[in-house]
Each structure stands twice: as structure tokens, then as C-alpha cells.
TrEMBL record:
Record-annotated membrane-spanning stretches: 12-30, 42-60, 67-89, 109-130
Domain of life, source organism: Bacteria
The protein, known as: Uncharacterized protein
Keywords carried by this UniProt record: Membrane, Plasmid, Transmembrane, Transmembrane helix
Length: 138
């Protein structure tokens, strides 16, 4: 029997999560030299990515299916996607400036997509190669 009248564990977890997000955003600010809004946006995406990776690891642990092998390239490319706000800011893209001047190559959507696609193609190509190398038939 619980005699404590404190049932605010959910609220405390929300406050703790918010404090961890702010701390993570401050670390991103100092590491990549970006403003707080950009660091928070990228931090939320990285946290969602980490939750997805944790879910894949949990699924792989409780399943006979090799989840890690088939999701690793996609997870790496999704980490690349979570860094887009930081890359855009460092490339010269600013939301408060109406004219974009001399944006670096890694800030354009085309090259971000090309790198995203290259990570997936190379990663799944390596998986395909090692999978077919162990089979003597096709």
C-alpha cells in the first residue's frame, strides 16, 4: 500500500527530459557553433534517431530476424538527416535573411540527398555482397 500522495512521476519525467534536451542543445551549440534554435531542432531529431536505433536493437535482441544487418545503412543515413539543420546553418542558409549568398555545397538539398542516397546504396551494396558471397547459388 502506497501512502505517498505524490503521483507526479510523469511530470517529473517530462521536466527531466526537457532539461536533458536543453543540455544536449547547449552541447550542440558549443560543438557546432550554431544558435539555440538550430541546436534544439537538430537535438530533437538526434533524440528521435537514438530512440529508433534503440527500438531496432531491442527488436533484434528479441527476434530471430537480423534487424541490425538490414537497418544499419538506413540508420546511418537517418543520422545524416538529423544533422541537416546544423549543416544548413554552417553552409550559410539563414531563415532571417531574404537573399541566399554563396551557399556551400553541403548546404544544398541536392548534395544532402546525394550523400543520403550514397550511404544507403553503398551500405546495402556491402550487405548484398557479403550475403551473396556466402551462397553458392543464385
Amino acid at each position: 500500500m502506497n501512502r505517498s500522495s505524490n503521483n507526479e512521476i510523469g511530470g517529473m519525467l517530462v521536466v527531466l527530459g526537457g532539461l536533458l534536451l536543453v543540455g544536449f542543445a547547449v552541447w550542440i551549440m558549443k560543438t557546432f557553433d550554431v544558435p539555440f534554435g538550430i541546436a534544439t531542432e537538430s537535438g530533437i531529431k538526434i533524440i528521435v534517431w537514438a530512440l529508433a536505433v534503440t527500438g531496432a536493437l531491442f527488436w533484434s535482441h528479441h527476434s530471430d530476424f537480423n534487424v541490425i544487418k538490414f537497418t544499419a545503412p538506413f540508420m546511418v543515413s537517418m543520422f545524416w538527416y538529423s544533422l541537416f539543420p546544423v549543416l544548413d546553418y554552417n553552409a550559410g542558409i539563414r531563415d532571417d535573411f531574404p537573399i541566399q549568398m554563396d551557399i556551400n555545397w553541403y548546404g544544398t538539398a541536392f548534395w544532402q540527398f546525394v550523400i543520403f542516397l550514397a550511404i544507403n546504396v553503398i551500405g546495402y551494396g556491402i550487405i548484398y555482397y557479403f550475403h551473396r558471397r556466402n551462397n553458392y547459388y543464385w
